[in-house]
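Tokens in:
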């Protein structure tokens, strides 16, 4: 049985059911699931409510990215359950899992994972292309997102023709294009210089506070913990403690205008406006 997790700060009250529920999750690699030496994650239990900005923080090797892969449905837990909107991810069929990846979550990888042979706007539109959205609607949506992130001038360039910070913003735009219920973000500042990293974190801060996006972000950088509403501290595959952080909601990040965030909120509210047609 795992030790009790220390909680710091006031737990906010919510009358909404959790969006994500992680219950007694362990993950092992290797042929013998009973070999404790192969355990990467140990008895993780927590929930994420709609509208939270949760940072999973810990040193390299603590299991953060493995947990993110489980939340993304890219891997399955050895024990325990992960449910999103009441659905156990381990019970989804391949078709249902593909739909989950396209429509319910957006993921931003540390290495951006942009396709070099596609233009910037085509990379942003890729999830809608996979969903069967027609050319003109998906191009329009991609260009609107690029404009919000001040990247419209690079729409027809290729990823190797823009900076790392710009590539990260393209990756965030791609993750948003299908109006996902939540974003999973893996070490978004790991490959960026300080100025670009700060700008990316300000954008994510605005997505949460102005556009009400639910965000789960993995990092080993302590400089950005203050952006979260809750920090989950991990070490050696276990949750050590969690800390709730209060914020002044009037704070407006300077990286993107408040008007732009309102447009993103409108996109989110009008879910389905860019459905197949």
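Residues out:
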């Amino acid at each position: 049985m795992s030790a009790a997790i220390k909680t710091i700060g006031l737990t906010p009250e919510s009358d909404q059911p959790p969006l994500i529920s992680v219950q007694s999750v362990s993950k092992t690699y290797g042929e013998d699931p009973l070999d404790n030496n192969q355990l990467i994650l140990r008895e993780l239990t927590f929930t994420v409510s709609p509208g939270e900005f949760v940072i999973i923080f810990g040193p390299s090797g603590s299991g953060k990215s493995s947990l993110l892969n489980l939340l993304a449905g890219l891997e399955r837990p050895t024990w325990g359950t992960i449910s999103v909107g009441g659905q156990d991810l381990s019970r989804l069929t391949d078709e249902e899992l593909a739909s989950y990846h396209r429509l319910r979550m957006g993921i931003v990888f540390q290495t951006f994972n942009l396709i070099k042979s596609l233009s910037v706007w085509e990379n942003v539109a890729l999830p809608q292309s996979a969903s069967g959205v027609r050319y003109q609607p998906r191009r329009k949506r991609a260009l609107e997102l690029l404009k919000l992130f001040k990247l419209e001038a690079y729409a027809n360039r290729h990823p190797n023709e823009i900076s790392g910070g710009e590539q990260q913003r393209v990756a965030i735009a791609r993750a948003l294009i299908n109006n996902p219920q939540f974003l999973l973000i893996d070490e978004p500042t790991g490959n960026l210089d300080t100025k670009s990293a700060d700008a990316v974190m300000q954008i994510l801060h605005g997505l949460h506070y102005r556009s009400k996006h639910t965000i789960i972000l993995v990092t080993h950088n302590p400089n950005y913990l203050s952006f979260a509403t809750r920090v989950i501290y991990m070490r050696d595959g276990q949750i050590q403690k969690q800390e709730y952080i209060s914020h002044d909601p009037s704070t407006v990040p300077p990286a993107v205008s408040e008007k732009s965030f309102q447009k993103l909120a409108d996109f989110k509210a009008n879910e389905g406006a860019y459905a197949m047609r």
